[in-house]
């Protein structure tokens, strides 16, 4: 195998480096902060350095770990791994100084590490400040290593005990800058890798064809990285595609299947239930825009141009009832929130035969409040079956049983955790019990049944999720009088529950380490490559305009947009009404955390400032 270049920092007596140089395929560059004369005076240092040189390793002295690029030419700055065992500023330096040391070290390491390289940092028990430390120190009294590393673009990808007794000849030294050993019992080795950069996307346009008419529209900023990802393409190894394939394979044993995925446009126009309006990504005519010369040369001169809006811009109106008075929304397009209308259109074309199961799938888009299992975009699959009138219930049972069998089979191959699936009448649920997926489906059209999944440790079922809904309808098509059964499933929620993915955002990560865990056609229990990501809390207070209610969906959507989906929680913490004027003030607490990228305190502070400006201008709030 190609040899790995390994850089060791702060080696002291070089005993760790002498042990590592024995590893096959490893080229060691060992460095010491002290001068060669100072190191020569350390116990067994000369012996270890001699062993290193015999093995062909390089040994450097007086190397500052915060200025690594100064010691290596550009062609030498390609280390596959950097080790820094038990860093310390020396003497009785406190946690603040040692955090600053680590921050400068990580920034310097980024300059000499290969793209796929690792940075190993060993710390004494409790210093790191992560849940892996037992006992765990209070955050303010720790070195906060994950947050510090995030400032240089690194994420913690693994952590394990530092077992000094297994390292042949290793002898730790340097206690309070002296040639004395220190306790390494309970020490941990933290392994960091580079993060993909935070996403700051430029405005993006997309073009679709509707009824032989080309429509070019501006993609909502919060969805720029989620349009046309191709997760449901035939050669995709994404979990949502694997689950869809397994479901359809199971159902093909009982039904003749017809796939109709290829001609479903992202945009729709026309009637939509008024209850859904605030959850829709609206695309409205933009008369100020005209096709560019390039677009005209590409044959787009007749394309209609549209842009995304969050709410009606008429400042004298608020709420969707007034939007309908002030704006003609019948001319507006919207990103499809469901595939159900496409299924209904196929039925009306009269192409259904009894017993034929039509399969529609694709991403759908819904504005929603920020919550762990609230997905603004997800992959939906809709199964539609035509049956002779009066036999709908038996069809529902056959569909439900096949779906349950398929999900059970997928889950058992992945995890030993208990998972139970049930078909429950929608009337048995209170509206407050429905998750965002089911609540929106209920507004969209009447539901007869919910497909629920309960999951948790083998000892008990802890959580219940609605992952699908069942509807029935009757249509008179010529001489036929058929009943239809519609089953809608949220493939993203199923992928999360089956593969143990705790954060929906991970399904959309650009980091290739996610999809590498899922070979084509296989599902596995997901192992996170970003452990214990730091979280940051910021509050925002404002006065609400007189006589208006805060549009919480728009408030949350703005937070999603400005933070690049790094806001994981928004909680109302205080409400105050001024007695003299009746003005109302609200205070919300925002928690920022990324599941796959390095998120620094400075970056979050900038996001918070931008969020304040955006809600001030777009929601007309008066900041406090």
TrEMBL record:
Reactions that this protein is recorded to catalyse: tRNA(Phe) + L-phenylalanine + ATP = L-phenylalanyl-tRNA(Phe) + AMP + diphosphate + H(+)
Name the Gene3D superfamilies for this protein: Bira Bifunctional Protein, Domain 2 (3.30.930.10), Ferrodoxin-fold anticodon-binding domain (3.30.70.380), Vaccinia Virus protein VP39 (3.40.50.150)
**Keyword Mitochondrion tagged:** yes
Q: Where does it live in the cell? A: Mitochondrion matrix
GO CC aspect terms? mitochondrial matrix
- Superkingdom of source: Eukaryota
Keyword terms, alphabetized: Aminoacyl-tRNA synthetase, ATP-binding, Ligase, Mitochondrion, Nucleotide-binding, Protein biosynthesis, Transit peptide
PANTHER family of this UniProt entry?
A: FERREDOXIN-FOLD ANTICODON-BINDING DOMAIN-CONTAINING PROTEIN 1, PHENYLALANYL-TRNA SYNTHETASE
- What PROSITE patterns does this protein's entry cite? FDX_ACB
The record's section on InterPro entries has: aa-tRNA-synth_II/BPL/LPL, BMT5-like, Fdx_antiC-bd, Fdx_antiC-bd_sf, SAM-dependent_MTases_sf
What does the record give under GO molecular function?
ATP binding; phenylalanine-tRNA ligase activity; rRNA (uridine-N3-)-methyltransferase activity
- Species: Todus mexicanus
- Which residue ranges does the record assign to the FDX-ACB domain? 531-624
Q: What is the lineage of its organism?
A: Eukaryota, Metazoa, Chordata, Craniata, Vertebrata
Q: Which SUPFAM superfamilies match?
A: Anticodon-binding domain of PheRS, S-adenosyl-L-methionine-dependent methyltransferases
Q: What is this protein called?
A: phenylalanine--tRNA ligase
